TrEMBL record:
It comes from Abyssicoccus albus. This is Na+-driven multidrug efflux pump. One of its GO terms (cellular component) is membrane. One of its GO terms (molecular function) is xenobiotic transmembrane transporter activity. The chain crosses the membrane at residues 21-40, 52-75, 82-108, 128-149, 161-182, 188-210, 252-272, 278-295, 316-338, 344-362, 383-401, 407-426.
Length: 444
């Protein structure tokens, strides 16, 4: 019998990736989790702002993914070349991020209008988002450095930076919300400032670590090289980042629809999104580790071994996701009881969490399928499936059943489950078809 995969080897890949992914997820969600103890309006303000920020951060991953692929090709060159490339990608990332922040500032009023933000939190949402935008440059720089450190086989440093940044953020937010809450005129906006401080601290530590790992010396930068490097990075990063960008823009649109039902419903949706992100983090980490582990079998054209590993991995990630999500449900209910979540919001969260028992395993298997297809070099098919299914099926059906027929958020959630199921059928069929195997494997 062939063992599907070497568990100790897979575990050594999976564990550090899981830790890093978990803390990056926590950085995006901790504000809303902690503000949930303050009010449902605070949840909505933070959650809607994070929707805007997430779209911006996902566009910067084009640079980060492209940098990772490009850097792998040059990692074995002499140290002078590596330092020059690092400086170039730093400048490219800074220019790109600054440009995107400028675009968000120019279009913020339109986005708030598009999201149907309730009037009573419109001004606070605008202010909260503006404050968070200041910290994006530091967060984007930290993410870029983490990408470089992982490529240089120094993932442990990236993990520690993420841990320190998150612990700092939690401590600063706790001081604002539980100690100084009565001495601050607007604790919600103060939380945004504390988040920025933690991002600055993380960025400084990350820059220091990177400077110790490379030979820092004066180099000659040219506009021509920067333009060439920019084109190369975008060409490599855009297809891989495209699916996530499309998916999260669709979430942006769905948030706009759900906002029509008021603060309580949007608060419930955003809290469930936060709780589900915990489950999803395990799925993403598993998929990334599997992608790395599968690579050697795909490269050597070991089709029989790969198929056994792949089929086993689908079962593992399916059952793992269900188990983790049940734990998340229990933890979420206990947390909501402790912080005395409003009754209406609690009921919405409760129902959506149980509907997500069907949603999250499908999402997990789709993430695995996308990463495996990308190992093949098949980067365009997942993006095409995402765009077609999302914009020709999911968004129209969500509007019809959720808004036009007044099915509300529960109808929209069921449409999301159907969305993930259709994606799974399409990508799994492509992955397992005989024609596809013949195309990518020359020998056994």
């Amino acid at each position: 019998m062939i063992v599907p995969y070497n568990k100790p080897t897979f575990k050594r890949l999976y564990t550090p990736i899981l830790i890093e992914q978990f803390f990056f997820m926590l950085m995006a969600q901790v504000d809303m989790l902690m503000l949930s103890s303050y009010s449902s309006k605070a949840i909505a303000i933070s959650g809607i702002s994070q929707q805007v920020i997430l779209i911006l951060m996902l566009t910067t991953t084009i640079i980060h993914v492209g940098t990772s692929i490009n850097f792998i090709y040059t990692i074995n060159r002499k140290k002078d070349d590596i330092w020059l490339i690092i400086l170039e990608v730093f400048i490219i990332n800074l220019i790109f991020t600054t440009f995107m922040i400028f675009i968000v500032l120019l279009t913020m009023d339109w986005m708030i209008l598009f999201l149907n933000v309730p009037k009573e939190i419109e001004s606070a949402t605008r202010q909260f988002t503006t404050v968070l935008l200041v910290g994006i440059i530091f967060h984007s720089t930290t993410m870029l450095i983490s990408t470089l450190l992982r490529t240089m086989q120094l993932a442990k440093y990236a993990t520690w930076v993420s841990i320190i940044m998150n612990i700092t953020n939690v401590c600063l937010n706790a001081i604002v919300l539980f100690i100084l809450v009565h001495n601050i005129s607007d604790p919600v906006i103060a939380v945004a400032h504390m988040t920025n401080i933690s991002k600055i601290i993380g960025c400084v530590i990350a820059i220091y670590i990177l400077s110790k790992q490379v030979n820092v010396k004066p180099v000659r930068l040219t506009i021509k090289r920067l333009i060439t490097r920019s084109k190369m990075i975008v060409k490599l990063g855009l297809p891989s980042a495209g699916e996530n960008i499309s998916y999260n823009i669709s979430q942006f649109v769905l948030t706009s629809m759900i906002s029509l039902y008021g603060v309580s419903v949007i608060s419930g949706k955003l809290m469930v999104q936060t709780f589900n992100s915990i489950t999803f983090t395990f799925s993403v980490a598993f998929a990334i580790a599997a992608q790395i582990y599968f690579g050697k079998f795909i490269a050597k054209h070991h089709i029989k071994i790969f198929k056994k590993i792949f089929n086993t991995s689908k079962k593992v990630i399916f059952y793992q996701t269900i188990g983790i999500h049940f734990i998340v449900i229990i933890g979420s209910i206990l947390l909501m009881k402790i912080i005395n979540t409003e009754h209406v919001v609690f009921n919405i969260i409760f129902v959506l969490l149980f509907l997500s028992i069907a949603l999250e395993p499908l999402r997990a298997m789709n993430v695995l399928l996308v990463d495996v297809l990308n190992v093949y070099g098949d980067v365009y098919y997942p993006v095409s499936v995402n765009v077609i299914v999302t914009w020709l099926l999911t968004i129209p059906l969500s509007y019809i059943f959720g808004i036009a027929l007044d099915g509300g958020i529960y109808a929209i959630w069921i449409v999301l489950i159907i969305d993930e199921f259709i994606r799974y059928l399409l990508m799994n069929r492509r992955m397992t078809s005989k024609e596809y195997s013949k195309l990518h494997f020359n020998t056994e």
